[in-house]
Amino acid sequence: EFPPKEAARYYVHDLPKLLDIAGLGPALTTEAGQDPAFRANWAIVKDRAEETRYYSRGQQEAQDILEATINPQHGVRQWLKRNW
Fold first, then answer.
1. Three-state secondary structure along 8-77?
2. Residue 15: how many other CB atoms lie within 10 Å
3. Partner of 68 for a Cys bridge, out of 9, 13, 15, 41, CB 3.0 to 4.6 A?
4. Block means of pLDDT (10 residues each) for the chain, length 84 residues?
């Protein structure tokens, strides 16, 4: 059946919730416990709300989010690529 009956729960911009839906919550907890740099990057990225994309908080915040996402060793995107 497409879309699934519970499809509405997938259409969110809540990264922790999406990771749980994908079954990656335990892997994230493990990685964050072992890698302080990843844990710090996850803390920067995870609370970014969809609504905040419309509000400018400055170039530094944008740079911090970008770096936390794309850092080649400890970035959130790299972790997702390894685990999904």
1. HHHCCCCHHHHHHHCCCHHHHHHHHHHCHHHHHHHHHHHCCCHHHHHCCCCHHHHHHHHHHHHCCCCCHH
2. 17
3. 41
4. 76 86 94 97 84 71 92 96 92
CA distance 16 to 41: 14
Model confidence, pTM: 0.81
Distance CA 68, CA 19 (A): 17
Determine contact, residues 64/70, Cβ cutoff 8 Å.
no
> Tokens standing for 59?
């170039």
* Residue 61 in tokens: 């915040």
